[in-house]
Design goal:
The protein is mostly helical and about 230 residues long. The chain contains 13 helices and no strands. The protein starts with a helix and ends in a 16-residue tail after the last helix.
Length: about 230
């Protein structure tokens, strides 16, 4: 499958009504969008498989859905830090940020380096990218030990005062995901949330209260992932 074939497929799936719905219901505003749902992109991505050259061409096309497709067809093991830095600054909404971070960045050998570095970035969606990698990291690296996730909690506590919508939501996401990884991390996440809840910042209090509501729920599903050192 080549680039013209895929662009033709995307155009055949295009529906402006879907783009409008995504904007109105999910606050997804994107340049040069066709209106194609993620479920259809996933089907197309499975047909393509990993093809780095094609993925680069898809991104460079400038078509929003082609860029989403790039995130699903680039091999994470071959991803460079330079490429990650070039892509992350183009993210214009939470959907494309999360698509790249969950499908690609969190699975790359550079996931932790970029998560830590971007968590301090000034740009909203670059910073969100750092936290989205953290939120997804545990599912991409199921053998990772508690030490890594304790580092994530320290960063959550450090950045909890950021009141930008897509940052604070991602910070909260990390706190909840870490807390559901195993019982030890649940206790650590609850302790972190309790400290954050004492802050004056509105964002910090929201991050903490929302996480505590879930983590203190007796019916909350807590996994039993390994706790040994692994990195």
């Amino acid at each position: 499958m080549n680039l013209p074939d895929i662009i033709h497929r995307l155009n055949a799936l295009a529906d402006p009504a879907k783009a409008k719905l995504k904007h109105e219901k999910f606050a997804i505003t994107a340049s040069n969008t066709l209106g194609v749902y993620q479920k259809d992109l996933k089907i197309l991505a499975r047909e393509i498989g990993f093809d780095n050259d094609l993925a680069l061409a898809l991104f460079d096309s400038g078509i929003y859905e082609a860029r989403l497709l790039c995130s699903k067809t680039y091999d994470p093991e071959k991803l460079s830090q330079k490429q990650m830095d070039q892509w992350v600054v183009t993210f214009e909404n939470w959907e494309i940020c999360d698509s790249f971070c969950m499908a690609l960045f969190a699975k790359s050998p550079h996931a932790l380096d970029k998560a830590f570095a971007w968590s301090e970035h000034e740009a909203e969606f670059v910073k969100r990218a750092g936290f989205t990698i953290m939120a997804a990291y545990g599912f991409s690296n199921k053998q990772a030990g508690n030490e890594i996730f304790e580092e994530f909690l320290a960063i959550v506590e450090r950045e909890a005062d950021d009141d930008r919508l897509y940052v604070r939501k991602a910070v909260n996401w990390v706190l909840r995901n870490v807390g559901k990884r195993n019982v030890d991390l649940r206790d650590s996440a609850i302790a972190t949330a309790n400290r954050i809840s004492q802050r004056n910042a509105k964002s910090a209090r929201w991050i903490a209260s929302d996480a505590l509501r879930e983590l203190n729920n007796p019916n909350a599903k807590v996994l039993d992932y390994p706790r040994a050192v692994y990195r």
